[in-house]
Amino acid sequence: MKAQTFLQLPPQLVEDSASNNGSSVAGDCFDDDFLSDAGRESPSNADSLAEDSDDEAVAVSSADMARLRAMSYDRSRDRRCDCDEDDDNSHNTNDSRDQSRTRPRTRQRPQLRIQDVDLALDMGGDNGGDGDGAYQPLVSILPRGTKPVRLVGEGAANAVFEIKLPPGSRVGAQFQGKLLRVAKAPVLGRAPTSSDYYLRQQEFFIREIQPHLGEHAVSQELVVLHKSGIVDDLNAMLRDMNHQRKPKFQGSFIGHASWGFLVEDMRPNGDDGSILIEFKPKWLLQSPSAPKGAIRCRQCALELRNYLKTPGSKSPRPERRPCPIALANPDCPQQVASPFRIAPQLSALQDDARVQAILDKIIHHKAIQKLRECQKSLDHVGPLLPPTNLDFVVAMTLRDCTCFALVPSNDDEEIKLRFGDFDFKDPEKKFNHWRGTEQDLIEGGFYTADWVVCGDTYYHPPSLCSLEWSGKPRVGDAVILLMEDNTTKHNKLSSYQKNGSPSSAKTGKTVYRHTADLAALHKGLEPFKREMGGAQSDSIYNNPLRCDPRRG
């Protein structure tokens, strides 16, 4: 495929993410643990088939108005995080989250009570056409007669739609370049989605995300859907295209609600030759709670675990996924640090100098550096200890956001890079999952494994992590992941056998035992087979830094 041909291809519908735009490859974004959506903040009250109410209830209650005024006050303040300043200081990573920096500091101003400030909330008048494209009201009102045009993306908890305002609408400028993001209904027959869900998400965005990322965050604002009639139209569209949706999303619908979000539309204009590259940066630094002898970063360890757990799935092997800490690491071999790992759909164009330059610009973009600084500043302990403040939750949110890079056709123009998908994750629901995942990675040997063994065959782990190719040759026991056949089919509990006490009986090896579908695993790992004799292989997987399994 020629570069020019590919760069003219429109992005496809993203299937695994409710991001605010499409993707150039289906299924390229995954949750922190793609096998679990536990703990993601979702509306507790929703009725996917409820009709819009025509009663005369006030769409914005007095309590909601107070929260909106508080958000308006917060947005008007000069709130900026000090992550880059914190990076210049050393941190003590003792066993206490109290060592972490607490809240994002704001520039000092005279203390004012919110009730002393006259904050007029713009509720969607016709003063949005200021012509500069920067108009962002705190709250907009969706005009009755607005219709959905297409489903842009959907996930387990949300869906994103392109919408079209009725002809002659006076607020067209307000909705220009924006998409409608709404919550799905988790359970049929519930009451309408409460305003608290949407207000809580927006409070989190304004108070915790924007101070850190600023202009690098996809813009998001509240929109009142009350009496617009849009929810019924959205669900009608989902019904009509149900057979075209990913199987796990079929039959899910939008919860009846008086609120939604307007999010910045990052999709390319089909006429100007621009393209969108979408990926998840994930953990741009090693987990603070990773074991001392880790030779794999947190994300690569997770990808390795997930692949060995379900080798027959359609999920790509870990080496085809980006290693987050290799994004801008000049010390890795090209096959490990290649920028094409963030865009595997472009792998056929690896010899194209322009595409290479584009991806290099993305991975070295100042926004990626900023995201890394914020992740580092917000969490110095890791997910094994309970959080004592919101910093850790913000850090985990930034570790699971999506990067959207809009690449113009003209090389002289700047790449527009934004981060999105900042759903608040309730720590009371999510922390056990975060901690359990980290414990699995540590106690299962996924951070430290030198080899994967199936029967009598040794395989190089298919992870290609930057840490595997860094530092001095490993000494001590070779760490083995011994995969044994899982004869109990369709039993999730038996697909991963947790081993809290690996065996190391003076053999020169530390062995962690796991179960899997060995037939599928042998097939998937064939390119990584270790040749035990003869000349040294020149394969990229032949890493001279690994412990030799024959020692001892």
TrEMBL record:
Chain intervals for the UniProt region annotation (Disordered): 1-58, 74-112, 531-552
Molecular function via GO: ATP binding; inositol-1,3,4,5,6-pentakisphosphate 2-kinase activity
Entry EC number(s): 2.7.1.158
Catalytic activity: 1D-myo-inositol 1,3,4,5,6-pentakisphosphate + ATP = 1D-myo-inositol hexakisphosphate + ADP + H(+)
GO biological process, one term: inositol phosphate biosynthetic process
Entry GO terms, CC: nucleus
Superkingdom classification of source: Eukaryota
Keyword Transferase carried by entry: yes
A family per Pfam: Ins_P5_2-kin
Record's function text: Has kinase activity and phosphorylates inositol-1,3,4,5,6-pentakisphosphate (Ins(1,3,4,5,6)P5) to produce 1,2,3,4,5,6-hexakisphosphate (InsP6), also known as phytate.
Family the UniProt entry places it in: Belongs to the IPK1 type 1 family.
Protein's name according to its UniProt entry: Inositol-pentakisphosphate 2-kinase
Protein source organism: Trichoderma breve
